[in-house]
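pinned: reference chain
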Amino acid sequence: MCIGLVLEGGGNRGAYSAGVLDVLCRNDIYIPVTYAVSAGGCNAMSYLSKQIKRNFRIYTEYAADKRYCSLRNLMKTGCMFGYDFIFGEIADKLIPFDYEEFDRTTMKLFLCSTNVETGEAVFIDNKGLSKDLTPLVATASLPVVSNIVEYKGMKLLDGGVASPIPIDKAISDGITRNIVVLTRDKEYVKKDKPDFPLIYLRHKYKKYPQFVQAMIDRPKVYNRQRELCYSEQEAGRAIVIQPSKPIKIKRSCKDPEILEEIYNLGVKDATERLPEINRFIAVNE
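pinned: its structure tokens
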């Protein structure tokens, strides 16, 4: 019986997940299969390459860099995030990504994006990912502030639109026991409205009505997937790790001290759950 890891996105709230994953790494806990969305996918890359605190450094050292995220980027390229900088200069020089370890791993990673033409979730595995990071760019490309990403004939954007917490995909793939890392606290409920004005979405994505509908449906999908996580936990088939207190920041927060606090909260929460996590894994062995 295989065990899975499910990672929510959330922009720079992902610093929380980075803390959780570093606790797993320090305790040599490597889950065979990971399903990740957006910032969760970026964190998952360093998890598979076994690079502790790599994403912590990215959040705290470069989130405030205009090359990382800025209106200047948006005006120059149509995308607020500087993916050439994030997945180029940072990954190759500033905080090098261990491509060799990533290629050696036997762990599987499925990155979730949303097909703009169908409004449905697309999952792309890590085979060949180190040579072409386009699927990673796609899963992190937020609607409106990012350009549509083309990959193998598909037009893709943020996986958080169609499947923000892809536990149902893990279950449908036969992964019946999952560790889920959320970036919202237990009391959070997503309001039933799109993240952007509907009239604007219909104008910007007028060629893609199914994507607009996916944006409209996103709050219901998000809340339904969260409830599935909790019901799986109650049934003993999942562990849900999430902030023990609300993370009240915008997804583009750039304050390194706040991001460090969020990372440390992830470390604290995961460390407290370690005995439970170890028991959960032991049942699987």
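why pinned: The chain has a mean pLDDT of 94. The chain is about 45% helix and 15% strand.
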